[in-house]
Amino acid sequence: EWLSIGAQAVNGSVGVNWLPEPSLSVFLHDWLGGRTFGDAVRRSNRAASRVLGQVWRGRHEPHPKIASSQMLVFGDKELRSR
Length: 82
Hints:
The chain is built from three helices and two strands; from the N terminus they run βαααβ. By secondary structure, it is of the alpha+beta class. It has one domain.
């Protein structure tokens, strides 16, 4: 829906996002630092998954909360903030 009202790029999790931090901080650092929107989303999700993967260890790989938090990007993945 965000794209239909003018957003150029959006992201969201496949399920419940259990990784709001450090995802947001890493995303903002990377995107405002000049990386593309898609790259910043991927890097932030990877960093958060790595950190929380140390907490949420289970028999399943990846842990269900980490799998639920996997990010999808729609729109202009190459969008830059500047």
